[in-house]
Structures
1.
Amino acid sequence: MTANINSPADYNNKFPPVGSSRRQEKAWVKPTLIGIALGYLALVLFIPTLNVFYQAFRKGVGPFFANLTSPDFLHAAQLTLVISLIVVPINTVFGLCAAWVIGRHKFPGRTLLISILDVPFAISPVVAGLMIVLLYGRVGWFGPWLDAANIRVIFAFPGMVLATAFVTLPFVAREVIPVLEEVGTDQEEAAKTLGANDWQIFWNVTLPSIRWGLLYGVILTNARAMGEFGAVSVVSGNIAKKTQTLPLFVEDAYKQYATQAAFSAAVVLGLLAVVTLVLKEILERKTRIKEVEE
């Protein structure tokens, strides 16, 4: 019995191309994976974020701004800002030095140094805070010397700076090292041949080449410094109007059943995160444009 085939369409319907059924079977895979990803993001990110904003503005805009002008909130925000203003420049300088040593030199122990640089990524911030307490506390290694000099580190501002500096240590170096390795040394060697000294080479050749990676690292360092909770909570004591940063204020206010104040502060931290993401995206686009132009 012979099938009536009068056109190519009839042929394709009768004898579908090899692999077409397989493509049809796989057509559902992409929408399913996208749906799973969106559902997961909705559960862990979108819905909690919307709830934070809802709780912050539930009683109106007036109470929201009233919470942001309370003395406890203002002191916590000011302390967070001061710690960031201290830690970010310090880790920027350290990150540049570490990146220069690792990216421009080959030496024994280089891999070990890179691994040590990643230690703040590998351990819990709470463990980092405990390490600082064991070093600088009253019964720590340096505790007796600090007591003799009447210097208080733990449950005081210096300990909070140390904890924040530790957890934000790798960001600048980790962003600059790959850029230095990709740029290479040709331009720097050419500048040295023309008589430029090391300082001139750094400012006029190296820094312009790594500026986007450096700014990216600075933004990430600042974001982590302003949002750090674990290590700072261990070494600060969380004393209102003394050693309470903005993340600690959120926890303390929630525990004291001042839920709207807690959510109002959380909104501020969330907006800081959004600003960080926007700046991150801008820098990434500028980096891609620069790569295309080159």
2.
Amino acid sequence: MNISDLRGTDLNLLVVFHLLMQERNVTRAAAKLHLSQSAVSAALSRLRSIVQDPLFERGKTGMEPTARAKELAGPIALSLGHLARTLHPEEAFSPSDSTRTFHLAMSDDIEAVIAPWLLRRSIEADWQVKFAFHQTNSSKWHQSLEDERIDLVLCATPAEVSSQYRSKAMFSGSYLCVYSESQRGASGPLSEEEFREAVHLRVSFDAQRGFIDELLESAGVQRRVPLSISHFAGISTVLHENPAIVTLPDYAARAIASTAGLTTSPVPLAVPTFTTSMIWRVEASASNDRSWLMEELQAFQGAERVKAASA
């Protein structure tokens, strides 16, 4: 298809579609577009005829997009963003002049390293922008991005990211064990026997099973886990008072051990590696302020590598 073939297509229909994908409600989309509900409904009807698909169907919580709508959402949002930026170029974003609040969603293990690093950069550079952190995890990242306030999600890289979103790897990692030397009465790297026989603390968003359970059971070992918690914040208190060990992402293990006076040890078994990525809505790609934020967060990758190498 040539660009000239679009001459008979009303590009405003794509704007209506984009707002409907965001709002999943004709009334709210109409309000944002400053149009009547009937005008939005008519535009949707015309677009349905063009793409030969219903695009939206009634669901329990509102208008549910069809598979075709989900397929179209990303490319349309990206194209509209590029067009808006071309016709109405934004001024370069200055974090020293803006009072913008950026909203980032992540689990508290990532927060434990990103928050202090980002605050330190903000103080040193005298930024006026602010940052608000929200809780999520790698199973709920897409739910977080349904909130229009959220600029970015940081989480373990999902197996699949739909066309509505974009992702970019920030850093890679593996796992370390953390424990209290005084409680365990020992120091130095854990042996495989010590690891297998130890009392373990489990950290999991649903306080259920974790990958270490799977790893040990595949080797015929049932580990002893009398306590599971859903957040990383309580780890140091538990370990200071008990001769237990916990297995954490290495960046979180180093941060918690450093601030809480605990000890880290390599996991004495073969453990997987993973990547942590930032994820955002496609339409956010055309925003100068969010682009600035993503560039700043990319700097964390290099800083984390230097820190890990010197640890």
3.
Amino acid sequence: MYGDSATVRKILTELGDTWAVVGLSSNQQRAAYGVAAVLQRFGKRIVPVHPKAETVHGEKGYASLAEIPFEVDVVDVFVNSDLAGAVAEEAVAIGAKGVWFQLGVIDEGAFDRTRAAGLEMVMDRCPAIEIPRLR
């Protein structure tokens, strides 16, 4: 696992409540849909990021991180590992404070680069599993 429990706690409780969820669409069968709902229940503002730019869970979607017209605190990544590094670089470019690669999303080079850029990062974990444990 990449990202110790202190980093998990910091991302979930200290970095801010606006989470861009990359790969989130209105497809209820996808993991991103359920995870975004859990994040909302725990007080996070989710921002869907998907090429379709769909509204999901009542929140307006955007086609890319760069199109979001407000500050994003954490970028939660639900894309294949081979695409995740580019998303992490976009997260750095937009000034996010943290990046979260979901279960099964692994790119060690992106992890190292993102941490070197000063962002908090967790990889191969799920915030919907971790956030209830904080209570």
4.
Amino acid sequence: MPESRTSDSASASAYDSAFEFAYDELLATWPHPTTTSELPTPYGTTHLLHHGAEEAPPVLLLPGGGSTAGSWRTTAAALGATHRVHAVDLVGGPGRSRTAGRPLRTAADLTAWLDALLDGLGLTSAAFCGHSYGGWIALRYALAAPDRTDRLVLLDPTGCFAGFRPAYLLRALPTLLRPTAARTAAFLAWETAGAEHDPRVRRVDTLAAELPRLRPVTGPRPTATELAALRPPALVLLAEGSRTHDAHEAAMRATALGLRTELVPAATHHTLPATLPPRTLTALTDFLAP
């Protein structure tokens, strides 16, 4: 548990309440109607947000490692006209999912977890859209379970096409070693560098820094051979102002593999997915259109 929350249980409870209140405030801005559910899996209970007609083609939205399902609200509003949106709180990450049963330790565990989610939703397959670490999870799933992946959208994914910038890792290190809301707020302010960033999403992500979470499952970038064999149609959207990695380098590598790739202007890694310009939302919805 982070150092700042070990002093007494009363302060920890108050902090949890502040996060829950901020989560509810963010959820209140989601398009109407939005419903919630909890699905049991072998790795714990997964909390989801749902929007769009129940009979519409399904799409699962996977957030970045330090964020929650709520960060997808603008994307969900755009996709809800044509799709049934299922936004996921990652098991082991911040949000309202809870770990239990088997531990998540490998990419194969993540694949089994997503298999269990699709089964619990009564789906044989779905489109997947992942941001940051959620993009890595979605790509790994598409490689491991192509028959269950209809289409794939990767939104400034990490660990897929380019490595982290050294400056980003140096800035992120204090928030990883001793996470606090203040350190996370300063880090997000540095990375977004004045770009438009949804304040409700920023508050939830900042408060989430001090909540207990599991170490995320990590792994190497997929090889060129693996990526060349990717079967589902894929769209890669890279934040032009991302400080996480070199977006132009990542775009060149993705394009060289035959993947449709676009840069998101005036965006940084952490302004996504909450702040997507209309042109990018149109590209995303057109790509996923049934």
